[in-house]
Design brief:
GO terms for molecular function: hydrolase activity, acting on carbon-nitrogen (but not peptide) bonds, in linear amidines; metal ion binding. By secondary structure, the chain is an alpha+beta fold. It is 33% helix and 24% strand. It is globular, with a radius of gyration of 23 Å. The structure holds glyoxylic acid (GLV) and manganese (II) ion (MN) (2 copies).
């Protein structure tokens, strides 16, 4: 296949650069910062641009009630379950230009390349651009694929509020998606378990292993299990000069201890697969001369083993109990999500290994520690992922970078695999 298919590397490189111009972030000197929050003007512009590209190539385009975009190349057997690929184009604040986008524009390029090669697929080949893989706006990641796989109740989804807005002004997903033009019933987003014959996602590794080993392709065999929690710490506010130190119940000091307890317990597993991050911390009232009365923290905790993840949570909860008593604060915990890990389909892993062997590539089988929409697609379809290296393993930063050669190779493997799957 490698000899027959010729990926248009300059076009892919240039389209990745164009997509990166749809950004809310100010330029920086050390990279290309991309902030593209779901349903923001830049996200809507990026969606319109992607649809134009797909239409220009003669693919059918539709979107569903939550804004997932489907770009379809209809096969000679249109009723056979399609082979699908895709990823996301939303980006967290000050992220880079490759996370998700390589899987979307790379997927499009794979389809165009196969079309140009004269292939007439038996199964349809479909590219999906998922809504809100990133949790920035509504506090929970993979909104589109959770709904597609029936993992998230449609009513609960519509009632989700913007996570980073004050409670009295935060809009719901229902309000925001309606304003963006997506008005259908969210229940209609769900797909049946045999809707897709197979699902593949191409993505940058977001870690250092491929680059360190000099291996150009990773084949993901499993995806680690993510969970998210929100902790609200309520203490006693007051005047920063007049409230005496012995009388204080400083919510931020308690939060600081909690953050360190989280780090301590994640490290205490001595397993590289346990990771825990507190990435947001809202301090109320947030004035330099006011003792913090309330703090809201968001914890992102992941593990390949959900039982170990839960035992870290139990250890954290024990520390919270002593913290509460010692500091006289109230700490409440709200679970956002606690997801199971996903396993790739052995058949798809084998098929990707075969494609790599034909192309003279020695891939590395690996775990994905980042989550992806594939985590949820695994609930309704056989899945696997293709990873390519990224410079210094950096992701979610403006200096995130993947070479055109690696990106092109990833697309080549993807295209070959899609072609094989479409004929199954
Ligand atoms: C996805 O962006 C993740 O946080 O793993
Ligand atoms: Mn990401
Ligand atoms: Mn991603």
């Amino acid at each position: 296949m490698a000899q027959q298919i010729q990926i248009d590397q300059p076009r892919l490189t240039s389209e990745l650069a164009t997509l990166a111009t749809f950004t809310d972030a100010e330029p920086v000197s050390n990279g290309t910062p991309v902030t593209r929050i779901v349903f923001s003007p830049d996200d809507l512009r990026a969606r319109a641009w992607l649809k134009e590209l797909a239409t220009a190539d003669g693919f059918e385009v539709r979107d569903d009630a939550v804004g997932n975009i489907f770009i379809r190349w209809t096969g000679t057997d249109p009723d056979a379950p399609a082979v699908a690929t895709g990823s996301h184009t939303d980006a967290i604040p000050h992220a880079g230009m490759y996370d998700g986008t390589v899987g979307v524009l790379g997927g499009l390029e794979a389809m165009r390349t196969l079309k140009r090669s004269g292939l007439q697929p038996r199964r349809s080949i479909e590219l999906v651009m998922f809504t809100s893989e990133e949790p920035t706006r509504f506090g929970i990641g993979c909104l589109g694929s959770r709904l597609m796989s029936g993992t998230l109740d449609p009513k609960q989804a519509d009632a989700l509020h913007e996570a980073n807005e004050p409670a009295d002004t935060a809009k719901t997903l229902a309000q925001v998606r309606t304003a963006a033009g997506f008005t259908g019933d969210l229940a209609s987003v769900k797909l049946s378990p045999n809707h897709y014959h197979a699902w593949l996602e191409l993505h940058i590794e977001q870690g250092p292993l491929l680059e360190r080993e000099g291996t150009p392709i990773g084949i993901v065999t499993s995806i680690a299990a993510p969970a998210g929690y929100r902790f609200t710490i309520s203490g006693l506010g007051g005047h920063a000069g007049a409230l005496l130190m012995p009388d204080r119940k400083d919510a931020l000091c308690a939060a600081a201890e909690l953050i360190l307890a989280i780090e301590k317990h994640a490290l205490a597993t001595h397993v590289i697969d346990t990771v825990a991050t507190v990435g947001t911390c809202d301090v109320h009232p947030g004035a330099v001369n006011s003792v913090p009365s309330r703090v809201v923290l968001q914890l992102d905790i992941r593990d390949t083993d959900p039982t170990r993840r839960e035992s870290v949570m139990q250890a954290i909860r024990r520390d919270i109990e002593t913290l509460r008593q010692r500091r006289g604060v109230i700490i409440t915990e709200q679970i956002i999500n606690a997801d199971a890990p996903a396993q790739s389909s052995p058949h798809l892993v084998e098929l990707l290994e075969e494609v790599c062997a034909t192309d003279g590539i020695s891939p590395r089988k690996m775990v994905s520690r980042a989550y992806h929409d594939s985590l949820f697609m695994a609930r309704i379809a056989p899945i696997a992922m293709i990873f390519i290296p990224c410079r210094n393993g950096v992701s979610h930063r403006p200096d995130e970078y993947a070479t055109p050669a690696h990106t092109t190779l990833g697309v080549q493997v993807l295209a070959s695999a899609l072609a094989k799957l479409a004929s199954e």
